[in-house]
């Protein structure tokens, strides 16, 4: 799913771990659960609008992603202190696959288009595996534009839950 959704899940994980566990388990479980949360959240993202590739010509796609970028950036600004740890680990798979591995692969493929270098280092292969094994029963709606409604509802529910948990307390 989108960075904003990963961030909100991460914040909830850190709040719960720090409420119920003592040092060092609060840190350890925050890291472990945040990392795993990316796999689960991405695996079920098949029910939300989530095209595997960029749809440059599609105004709706561009509009939705513009909103997502603004929301994601805002969520980082709002939560980075004190939730940077869980947010970092909840996004590490995207940081590696999309911002590191993919650009390197692109460069290599410019020279040797048939190169398969790096294919096996993608974290999202784990996501695909988990989706096939555990979430195969979910309806595939990743090309359905109405799928954004599911993600919007999820985002609102998580924001409310974070408020309920006192996750905005660092502002007051
Ligand atoms: Zn991802």
If you had to describe this structure to a student in words, what would you say it looks like?
By secondary structure, this protein is an all-alpha fold. The protein has five helices and no strands. It has one domain (3-92, 127-171). The chain has helices at residues 3-20, 25-44, 59-111, 124-134, 147-164. The protein is globular, with a radius of gyration of 17 Å. 23% of the residues are buried. It binds zinc ion (ZN). Residues 38, 42, 93-94, 124 line the site of zinc ion.
Concise structural overview:
With 172 residues, the protein is mostly helical. The protein contains five helices and no strands. The longest helix has 53 residues, at 59-111.
Q: How are the SSEs ordered, and which strands pair?
A:
Layout: H1 3-20, H2 25-44, H3 59-111, H4 124-134, H5 147-164
Bound molecules: zinc ion.
Residues 38, 42, 93-94, 124 line the site of zinc ion.
> Helix fraction?
55-70%
- Structural class assignment: mainly alpha
Count of extended strands? 0
* Whole-number count of domains: 1
Rg (C-alpha, Å): 17 Å
Bound ligands, each once: zinc ion
Contiguous uncertain segments of 5+ residues = none
> What are the secondary-structure elements, in order, as H or E?
HHHHH
**Total count of helical runs of at least 4 residues:** 5
Distance between the termini: 30 Å
Residue fraction in strands = under 5%
**Largest sheet, described in full?**
none
Average predicted confidence as pLDDT? 95
Mass-distribution shape = globular
Provide the descriptors you would attach to this structure in a database record.
172 residues; mainly alpha; 0% strand; binds zinc ion
């Amino acid at each position: 799913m989108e960075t904003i959704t990963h961030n909100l899940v991460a914040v909830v994980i850190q709040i719960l771990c720090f409420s119920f566990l003592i040092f060092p388990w609060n840190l350890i479980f925050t890291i472990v659960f945040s990392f795993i949360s990316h796999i689960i959240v991405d695996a079920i993202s098949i029910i939300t609008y989530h095209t595997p590739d960029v749809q440059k010509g599609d105004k709706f796609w561009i509009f939705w992603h513009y909103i997502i970028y603004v929301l994601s950036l805002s969520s980082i600004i709002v939560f980075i202190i004190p939730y940077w740890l869980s947010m970092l680990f909840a996004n590490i798979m995207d940081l590696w696959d999309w911002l590191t591995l993919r650009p390197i692969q692109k460069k290599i493929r410019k020279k040797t288009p048939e190169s398969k270098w790096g294919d096996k280092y993608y974290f999202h292969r784990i996501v695909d595996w988990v989706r096939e094994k555990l979430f195969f029963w979910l309806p595939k709606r990743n090309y359905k534009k109405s799928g954004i409604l599911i993600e919007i509802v999820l985002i609102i529910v998580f924001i409310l839950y974070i408020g309920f948990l006192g996750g905005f307390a660092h502002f007051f």
